[in-house]
Write a structure and sequence with these properties.
It is a multi-pass membrane protein. The chain is 61% helix and 4% strand. The chain is built from nine helices and two strands, in the order E-E-H-H-H-H-H-H-H-H-H. The chain binds zinc ion. Zinc ion binds next to loops.
Length: 249
């Protein structure tokens, strides 16, 4: 059932269609505002509202854009998730190249396909661990409550709200000297993850932040373990400072 983006109550429909280009938005009986104003909005405005962390836009995307009867991840969201992972690979590679050149690591002398597959494996691992740990934390949190959690929608909420990672491309275009600026993008992604999950689960920001925080800690631990077990293989074992650099990748 569609949802009013303003107050979150269910509505019968979002609009009435009179002809091909003539629709009338439905007003919500509860809050007396348009149930979903974003139906008529351009994608650019939707994107800006996502950046501004407006809960209405996340209700629109999570309740009214995604089919509420599916069991898996929608194909366009799967494609977006793949794009995010590939993008992360590119950014990690970009950082690593600078890092290894600075400390003369033999990793950059390995074949390109080896470097790519290594970073791709790391990114996929981080993605899977983050999603699984957030779902696990929610399962533990709701185990004594009579609430049905649809984990595929949790994953879709996390994927959609990770759009902020795309902003990292600006670092490549503008060639920042200090890669540490990326923490600003990480905070944007964290904030939008919390906003999306909070809206979807109707959970307070503090509790949602705690759950997403557990996912991030698990992702860092997974990254550490992955790097620890492969340091010798990639020739980074004799460069302790590089290890700490890797952690900020
Ligand atoms: Zn309403």
């Amino acid at each position: 059932m569609p949802t009013c983006v303003e107050c979150g109550t269910s509505v019968q429909d979002l609009y009435t269609k009179y002809s091909e280009d003539n629709i009338r938005l439905t007003s919500c009986d509860h809050c007396h505002q348009f149930a979903d104003k974003y139906i008529e909005y351009d994608f650019v405005i939707i994107f800006i509202d996502m950046l501004l962390l407006k809960p209405q836009v996340y209700r629109h995307l999570l309740f009214n854009r995604i089919s509420q009867t599916g069991h898996g991840i929608e194909s366009n969201i799967t494609r977006f998730a793949i794009l995010l992972i590939l993008f992360e690979v590119y950014i990690k590679w970009f950082r690593l190249e600078r890092c290894c050149t600075q400390y003369n690591s033999i990793f950059i002398h390995k074949p390109l396909y080896y470097q790519y597959l290594y970073i791709l494996a790391l990114c996929i691992l981080e993605f899977v661990v983050f999603h699984c740990c957030v779902c696990l934390a929610l399962r533990v949190y709701y185990q004594n409550q009579n609430k049905v959690i649809r984990y595929n929608y949790i994953s879709m909420a996390l994927i959609i709200s990770s759009f902020g990672k795309m902003l990292l491309i600006l670092m490549v275009i503008w060639e920042y000297e200090q890669l540490e600026y990326s923490w600003l993008v990480s905070i944007t992604v964290l904030a939008s993850n919390v906003e999306a999950l909070s809206v979807y689960l109707d959970l307070s920001y503090v509790k949602t932040l705690f759950i997403v925080g557990l996912g991030i800690i698990s992702r860092i631990i997974a990254q550490l373990l992955f790097l620890r077990t492969t340091f010798v293989d990639i020739g980074l074992d004799d460069s302790p400072f590089l290890r700490t650099k890797w952690l900020s990748l």
